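About this split. The held-out portion is used to measure sequence recovery: a designer receives only the structure tokens and must propose an amino acid at every position. Recovery is the fraction of positions where the proposal matches the reference. Here is one held-out target exactly as it appears in the evaluation file.
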């Protein structure tokens, strides 16, 4: 591990569904437009890093982009449904 700093900007950095995957992959900084900052900050604060890392490992084993997208949790999924599903890769703190 080279401990290289990694930043992501553009559409994917502001995509709430992609944020857990980016965190799990070790991204250090997300560069997003000003209006999206509060939502992204709230999402990052609510995530469990260990779950994000598991999600990233699962994603790296997939063969297609569609399969990776299917793994990424919907940001609109409520905590109750995430907790109820043992297959949920990422759980958000309450």
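Reference sequence for scoring:
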């Amino acid at each position: 591990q080279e401990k290289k700093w990694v930043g992501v900007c553009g559409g994917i950095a502001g995509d709430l569904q992609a944020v857990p995957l980016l965190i799990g992959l070790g991204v250090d900084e997300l560069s997003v437009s000003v209006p999206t900052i509060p939502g992204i900050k709230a999402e990052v604060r609510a995530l469990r890093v260990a779950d994000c890392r598991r999600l990233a490992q699962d994603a790296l084993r997939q063969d297609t982009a569609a399969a990776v997208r299917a793994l990424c949790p919907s940001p609109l999924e409520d905590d109750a449904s995430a907790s109820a599903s043992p297959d949920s890769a990422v759980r958000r703190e309450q």
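Annotator remark: The chain has one domain: 7-80.
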